[in-house]
Amino acid sequence: MSKKRKSRGIQSSALKIDGKFVSDPDELREIWKEHCSQLYTPVTNSNFDEIFTAHVESSIPKYERESKNASYDALDNPFAIEEVSAVCVQLPNGKSPGPDGLTYEHIKYGGHAIMSSLTAILNDVRNIEIMPSSLPLGDIISLFKTNKKIRHDKDNYRGITLLNVIGKIFERFILDRWMPFLAEKGFPNSLQCAYQREKSCLDASMSLQEAVLHNIENGSKVYRCFLDSKKAFDTVWISGLFYKLYNLGI
Length: 250
Fold this sequence. Notes:
Layout: E1 15-17, E2 20-22, H1 25-39, H2 50-67, H3 73-76, H4 81-88, H5 104-108, H6 111-128, E3 138-144, E4 157-163, H7 165-184, H8 201-217, H9 238-248
Antiparallel strand pairs: 1-2, 3-4
Domain Reverse transcriptase: 154-248
Pfam families: RVT_1 (PF00078)
Protein name: Reverse transcriptase domain-containing protein
């Protein structure tokens, strides 16, 4: 199945670095390696709240210790093979594999033996509460963002990580188990349209337009603020994310 997937151009055959074009494959690999290394390295900024940063960083070890004794009924229940089969049959086709070369199709059409083995693996990981080092592994590829940008500028590429499918399936189950709890907490906010089922940018656009028209009709001033976070997913403050999740109850 992997061999049948159509290949497509991902990266430019040359990049412009310091005013010079680089096309040597070995040099390009080093450039991309350094680029990704810098991209995923936590940044510092004088605008950061140093006191709050120190508080968050010092809280994480404490949260980790407390989490070992925490329990949540939805996670304490083992996965059933019927549950695993029901989720796996809905996995999308045509997705690229991770480092292990496995695709969703291998799992979906593997039959009862695969579902039984997968259920056992997922439950073992859940029981020991340790993620095997191979599950979160992924291959990073760089996709050109849009034809309106310059192709030989490395900053115009979006890094995409192709993860091993077993790890992605396990994360899917954990998320599904947490969703009822998150819904009770009112998270995410009902006004959020991104990454929400049956919502899109059209919903956000309509809400914005209606809010603007409503205020104009009432003679009120309207202030709009648009925030475009550059490389938002790549530069997430991991400790800050864990801090928020813990205080949310996760």
